[in-house]
Amino acid sequence: MRGTARDPFTVLFLCTGNSARSVLAEAIMNRTGQGKFRAFSAGSQPKGEIHPYTLDLLRKLNFDVSGLRSKSWAEFSGANAPRLDFVFTVCDSAAAETCPVWPGQPMTAHWGVPDPAAATGSEAEVRLAFADAFRMLDNRISIFTSLPISSLDRLALQRRLDEIGRATAESPVS
After folding, report:
1. What is the mean pLDDT for each group of 10 consecutive residues in the chain (174 residues)?
2. What is the pLDDT of residue 117?
3. Catalytic one among 65, 75, 93, 99?
């Protein structure tokens, strides 16, 4: 049965550069959904390295960053790719791109989050943008992982995934 430690749901978070938002989401999901979910992240045009502020923030929050890397979404569309249950875009530009065909016919949703790597201002302001992105993703992932996935039909689940994507800190999902 999917969603168990033996057979967890597989989640892919997509962004363009795979250096900040999608990597944060991967780390959060693997911690929050431990045993029930297994997360990955990828980019349509990966930067090839994770933004240093992403790594700094995750380390400060006691996340293991040793397995994180910036990678292409092509790794998840081939014959040897893991079967995906869910694919979430976390940036608007990746959501607008034509995605590959994913193995497993996963459910998809757009969970757009402002790009902290594009933030300007002082170092403190830029680091705050990373913390805000983390908070938004953590909130959405917490809601998602608490859904009774196995008891929802596909249409109801899709509606909930879309609602989570529209939620903001000011208007959380009910």
Report:
1. 76 94 97 93 94 98 96 87 92 66 84 94 97 97 93 91 78 49
2. 93
3. 99
Q: Is 99 a catalytic residue?
A: yes
Is 79 within the bounds of a domain? yes
Pick the catalytic residue from 23, 50, 58, 91. Answer: 91
pTM of this prediction exceeds 0.85? yes
Place of tokens 């014959």: 79
CA distance 85 to 104: 7
Can 15 be counted among the known catalytic residues? yes
Q: In 22-61, which positions are buried (b, 16+ CB within 10 angstroms) versus exposed (e)?
A: bbbbbbbbbbbbeebbbbbbbbbebeeebbebbbebbeee
CATH at 23 = 3.40.50.2300
Give the single-character DSSP code of 150: G
The domain containing residue 141 runs over which residues? 9-165
